[in-house]
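request received
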Amino acid sequence: MFNITKFIVSDLIKNWILVLYSVFLLLATLGFFLLEGQGDKAILGVLNLTLLLVPMITVIFSTIYYYNMYEFMVLLLAQPLKRSRILASIFLGLGIAFGLAVGLGLGLPLWILHPTPVALMLVGVALLLTVIFIGLALLVAVWVRDKARGMGFALFLWVYFVLIFDGLVLLMMYNFSDYPIGKVVLFITFLNPVDLGRIMVLMQTEAAALMGYSGAIFRQFFSEWWGLIASLLIMLVWALVPAAISFRMFRVKDL
Amino acid sequence: MKPGFFLLWLMAFFLVLTHELEAGTFHVKKGSSLDTIQEAVALASAGDTIFIYEGTYLENQLVISIPLTLIGVNKPVIDSQGGDEIFIIRADQVLIQGLTLQNIGISHLKDRAAIRIVEAKNVTIDKNILINTFFGIYLQNSSQCRVQNNTIRGEAYDEVNAGNAIHIWKGSQMEVINNHLSHHRDGIYFEFVDQSLIHSNISQDNMRYGLHFMFSNYDTYEENTFQRNGAGVAVMFSKHIKMVKNTFEENWGGSSYGILLKEISDGLMAQNTFIRNTIGVYAEGASRIKIEKNDFINNGKAMDIKGNCIDNEILANNFIGNTFEVLTNSRSNLNHFEGNYWAQYKGYDLDKDGIGDFPHRPVNLFALITDKIPAANMLLHSFLVNALDMAERMFPEIIPEHLSDERPRIKPLAND
Amino acid sequence: MIKIDHLYKKFGRNQVLLDICLEFRENQAIALIGPNGSGKSTLIKIILGMVLPQEGQVYFEGRPIAGQSLYRQHIGYMPQMSRFPANMTVSQLFHMMKKLRKDEKSRDMDLYRAFEIDQMGSKRLEILSGGMKQKVSAALAFLFDPKVLILDEPTAGLDPIANEILKEKLQKSLGTGRLILISSHILNDLDDITSHVCYLMEGEVKFFKPLEQLKAETAENRLNRIIAQILKHTDTHV
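response:
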């Protein structure tokens, strides 16, 4: 498996989109710190960019990559290799390549410019989102045979998690604002890894106080260490469940 | 002036002088014949001085009804052992200095205090240490008293079982200076106290308010630090208050603020610093207050100014690093914002006069939404919210159009 | 060697394979022929485990292949179209394949040498022409000296010289206990190397007979003429 992974990684790190992605993250992070100076404002800018860009590039690129690798997978499948091993290699290869891109584009400048718990959390969340959206991309790509439709779905997933979900939440809150929805809000955040990741980072910043208004349970959950661990676990569930489903589908798929 | 009158004055003067010369001193010392304060107080006559030497004195309910001076030498400790109050002062001209008072029991029937001052004038409480005393220093119906240089530390664990560190109920011309107050219900409590000064105190980690201030007029508080108090500082139902150069910081929590201004008028709030508070200034029914040259830094909401606040002037403040700058619950605006520095200002200054070329609207749409639906705070800094906010600033529909600073500064002011 | 037992396959509503029963043995070289859409590629993919049948079973050396992968070390497969990772070079590809199957010691480098693949080693697979990709594919299929060779339209993109090299290689491989399965519709190419003909039509096996028998039945010599004869015959029959 690691042989295939190695080749996929070495294939990906030469991909100009991935290089551009990493360089863009790097320049944007540096830019935020140059323009906004040290502190939360720059971090917030980087956070906003990360939450928008990382899921988008990851999910779209990974979906395309799967379709482009289709013939290669067929070639590999003609070898005495297990199907799960082939998909796992792609998953892992994408994970490592995108992980490196995020590490270089976000991790490196933050480590140099702003080595704080917030920055660490931000990079951690970016990496988790990377894995999550690779999993979602594989789910879509394995499920949908047609490349154009698959890309459409991937794009929709991104819009959904970044925009539509929040819009629905806001509408729901507006209609149920007279009810005690503190607990519900906490569970709602679990349903969207982008929101969960954003809150995990924000709770490390000055904005934490305002987040507290979302409800006592909400505040308590995110400010305690066990809440943080629970959040990480939920993110991991998000990373693993779509991937696991895609593996199950891939096992019985006609290629 | 008639000569007879002059003579009378002279005699009176000598009388006082000789009285002073005759004033006795008592030395309360462990192992000596005079080893309780109780005894010394009973023996002393007006104007006497009692020195209390090191050691622990298990005494309480020491009633002082004549002018006396009590001075601790080498930090003697008076321990009430969970019992009643230690000093009850019912006379003028009393000085209590250098004592350590501790362990007053919690009572739900009576506000027990380490030192209670009742209907007295000119009492000074200086350089004492009060530990675990339910209420610390309790002044009622008194005037011209000074509470200074004391350290008052409670061990409160909840609001119901906690008393205030310095509690003043009805009084005037009081001075509360340079005390360190912590872990009580309120750090300083003022009710019906006029023309008084609160200066250079540090009030921190109290359950409720760092300063709780009601029905008190013509007071000044200056250069105090209020830190990590449950709800911050509350100044309510008062007039002509001067609030200058105080620091309000780290009042985090669901319903906490740097300062709550409620039903107050004609005051001045200047050169204060608000750092890391959930809400910097929360104003409700405040009018004719001049809020100027303050620094609002890294607060959740720098200022929440309700629609019933009128004719306040918000001038030359710095708003830096706050999540939301101004919040209100009204579409109209009856206050005046001018010449402030707003870090969120997106404008430019082409004519280089230091003033932005177009006005700044400090009210954020999402701040209004979360004010109505607190749970929506979970969407803070999400893409949706940022997009909505940008759209709203361009075409104001919901945010108060007239709440704007017509002359926003381009650079922060040096307010020190 | 390969036994196909009552195989059914549908893609959606489209019945692609209908009750296929076949048995391929060693030393056979089977020409799998039939019109486009007759199910040739699907059958090959089922044998390779890439497509899963709805019903029926494929046995490789007596064992069902469902859920298995190891049997494929005995199969060399050359797909109809070859696409490879864009940024990988030819030598990297061979290197990777060898590493993936490093436990298999026997190598057959004949085609690798004959196609002079070493000379394009540093080229990226993306920039290779279709014919060059087919050469790479063919060399890969033979690389591990497999017992079974499955070639899906092998001659489509190859130039005449390469075509001859491949045919020679296939002829050499015959009679060494191997099984060769070639799907093609360019029948002329298959003449010299075919021992059996399997004709698929609309998902059904029309016939599966030794070439000699077909020659005798139709009194024709060339494969394309044989097929034409049979088809004419069946048409008039129907």
